[in-house]
Structures are given as C-alpha cells and as structure tokens.
Specification:
This protein has two domains: 116 residues; 56 residues, no CATH class. Helix 6 packs across helix 7. By secondary structure, the protein is mainly alpha-helical.
Length: 196
C-alpha cells in the first residue's frame, strides 16, 4: 500500500496518481469503517450529509463496526442540529469527548472546504479575466505585438530588434489607449444612440 505521506509529497511536485471513483456513497462509508482507522472516521459526518442507504451499509458490517457506525450517526445528528443542517439521522448515545473531537474536526473540514471553494472561484475569475484581456487585446494588437507585450509582462528579456519594435510600433498604441481624452471620446461614441 502506498503511504499517504509519499502521495502528498508527489502531489506537491506535480505528480498526480489517479484513483478510481466510488460508485456509491455506501461503498465509500463501508471502506472507511472497514479501515478501522479512527482518523478516517472523522470524514464520515461529511459523507452523511448526503442521502445513503443505512440497511445496505449495516448488512456488510460486523457487530463491532455496526455499533461504531451507529455512534458516529448519533454524533453526526447532533453536529447537524447545531450547524442547522437538515437531516433525518437518528439520535444516539455517545461520549462527550468523542462528540467534541468530531465536532471540532467537522468545523475545520467545512472551513477548509469553504476556503478551497473561495480559492477555486478566485482562480476561475482570474482565468476568465485573462481570457477577456486576451480577446480585447487581440482586437487591437497584432499577434507579434501581443507576443512582445507578453514577454514584457512576464519580465522576459527582449532582443534589440524586439525592443526597437516595441518603441516604434507598440508604445505609441499603448499611449493612445491610456489617453484619458481618447477614452472619454470613445465612451461617448459607445454610449450615444446610433442612427442607421
């Protein structure tokens, strides 16, 4: 079995291992329980948000795991109640220490998921704005000019020929675009009703 430490380190270096997806939430829950890994059990409340078939799960568990699963369901029901998450989970008996352990982990997981979702949204906005900039700039600038502008933007060194071309052909266009009077003039033209 590949260690999690190795997988995490390889992912940091850009190497991704593809693992098959689970066909059902029940199979995922069963695999977590059968691992008998208490750290993995902390993920169960996140999975129990989804609809699942309780009977299908318990048929594949021994008595000890069945009891453990019922305890986690009871803890999750209380967590969901405190967090205002709708659920039909039955309440159960559990240790106060277990509840606090699961609840603090649940809050951490939710906070990190929200942070990741926010980062994904920012990245999506960044990519869209770059596409918009590329589209707008390709309307004004020829591909050769765009290539030189991208080199400057990325702090890449220009050859003497590229530098001369920049000052002769690109810079005057940039100054014209930045001219406030020209911008006002173009805005007036764009906002004025057009007549055929």
């Amino acid at each position: 079995m590949i260690s999690a430490k190795l997988i995490k380190d390889l992912e940091k270096r850009g190497f991704m291992l593809e693992f098959p997806d689970y066909i059902s939430i029940e199979d995922e829950i069963i695999d977590i329980l059968k691992s008998r890994n208490k750290r993995l059990y902390l993920a169960l409340p996140l999975l129990l948000i989804e609809k699942f078939d309780y009977n299908r799960i318990i048929k594949r568990l021994d008595k000890k795991l069945h009891k453990e699963f019922d305890k986690i369901i009871g803890i999750t029901a209380k967590i969901f109640k405190l967090e205002g998450i709708d659920n039909q989970l039955p309440r159960g008996k559990f240790d106060k220490g277990d509840f606090e352990y699961y609840y603090s982990s649940f809050k951490q997981f939710i906070a990190s998921k929200e942070k990741k979702d926010e980062e994904d949204l920012k990245e999506s906005i960044r990519i869209r704005s770059k596409l918009n900039i590329n589209k707008a700039s390709s309307t004004i600038f020829a591909p050769g000019k765009l290539r030189i502008m991208n080199q400057i933007f990325n702090h890449e060194k220009l050859t003497n020929t590229e530098l001369k071309y920049y000052y002769r052909s690109i810079r005057p266009l940039i100054h014209a675009i930045l001219n406030e009077n020209l911008q006002k003039y173009v805005r007036i033209i764009e906002s004025t009703k057009k007549y055929s």
